[in-house]
Design a protein that fits this description.
The chain has helices at residues 13-24, 46-49, 63-68, 79-92, 105-114, 128-143, 166-179, 183-186, 238-251, 261-265; strands spanning 3-8, 28-34, 72-75, 95-98, 119-122, 149-156, 187-188, 203-209, 215-223, 226-234, 257-259. By secondary structure, the chain is α/β, with parallel strands linked by helices. The protein is elongated and about 60 Å long. Bound molecules: nicotinamide-adenine-dinucleotide. Nicotinamide-adenine-dinucleotide (NAD) binds at residues 8-9, 11-15, 34-36, 39, 76-78, 81, 99-102, 123-126, 240. Residues 8-9, 11-15, 34-36, 39, 76-78, 81, 99-102, 123-126, 240 line the site of nicotinamide-adenine-dinucleotide.
């Protein structure tokens, strides 16, 4: 039986990639897509939006109707919209895949509450490569002592609104976990002016924005005399949409809970 997948925020950069992935995928059917009320894309035919000719599926604004028509919904939108969608997923018992970044701790608690009632996969990065990198970073950080300064550099396209990227923060959390500290206690998210010498044990972040860069992340471990750098570069948004659709297939019929991509990929020890 085919799994019915709906896409909220379907006219966005990721929304369009996700719809193409579902339309071209085996064993999955596109149940529809929604956009913001009053947005330019609402009412348009999905096939025409994707440059594939009329499909007979119209972009709606009624998220509840889309959830009812779907087994799983994929959400790459914005934090406030994602929380509203999480409440609907919990109420209607539908799987939800969340790629939205910039979700703060209070919002994450709401997401967790919704996940008590349904399966939610939440990942700041759905690429297989980055999820492998998260594992490697935790391992390297657990081996090297704090004389190795950890710095995380990321670059994204000029449309991105949140900084540092959700993936950079996730890499920071992985490094902190490897050192058995909390990222909140050691993170330095920006530096400007006379900030004084670097403190041992800090995990620093640097954010670059420009052009059409899909997503570059480097984690550096810099000591006196040597430096280790682990880098991932996403060259196409398709790596995220492929991972999210894989997560949707995995999440349908799963016990309620808040899962991440390492659960989907079986990377958890
Ligand atoms: P975008 O601005 O192109 O798309 C977001 C879309 O969501 C827009 O079309 C917007 O109209 C729509 N939207 C907003 N509120 C809505 C609502 N209430 N109902 C329906 N639609 C709504 O942005 P993007 O580049 O596609 O990125 C979207 C999000 O996904 C960002 O948070 C980004 O950081 C994140 N992202 C995550 C990954 C990952 O792997 N987790 C990868 C890429 C991007």
């Amino acid at each position: 039986m085919s799994i019915r997948i709906g896409i909220v925020g379907c006219a966005g950069r990721m929304g369009q990639m996700l719809m193409k992935e579902v339309l071209d995928g085996q064993g999955v059917t596109l149940s529809g897509g929604t956009e913001r009320d009053g947005g330019a894309a609402a009412g348009q035919d999905i096939g025409e939006l994707l440059g594939r000719g009329k499909l007979g599926l119209t972009i709606g604004t009624d998220a509840r109707a889309l959830f009812l028509a779907s087994d799983a919904v994929i959400d790459f939108t914005a934090p406030a919209a994602t929380l509203a969608h999480a409440k609907l997923a919990a109420e209607l018992g539908k799987a939800l895949i969340v790629g939205t970044t910039g979700i703060d701790a209070a919002h994450e608690a709401e997401l967790r509450a919704a996940a008590a009632k349904t399966s939610i996969v939440y990942a700041p990065n759905f690429s297989v490569g980055v999820n492998l990198l998260l594992n490697l970073v935790e391992k390297v950080a657990s081996i090297l002592d704090p004389s190795y300064d950890i710095e995380i550099v990321e670059m994204h396209h000029h449309h991105k609104v949140d900084a540092p990227s959700g993936t950079a923060l996730g890499l920071g959390r992985a490094a902190a976990a490897g050192r058995q500290v909390s990222l909140d206690d050691v993170a330095v998210r920006q530096r400007d002016g006379i900030v004084g010498p670097r403190k041992t044990g800090e995990i620093g972040f640097a954010t670059l924005r420009g052009g059409d860069v899909v997503g570059d992340h480097t984690v550096m471990f810099a000591a006196e005399g040597e430096r280790i750098e682990l880098t991932h570069k996403a060259q196409s948004r398709a790596v995220f949409s492929k991972g999210a659709v894989r997560a949707a297939r995995w999440a349908v019929g799963r016990q309620p809970g808040l899962y991440d991509m390492s659960d989907v990929l079986g990377l958890k020890a």
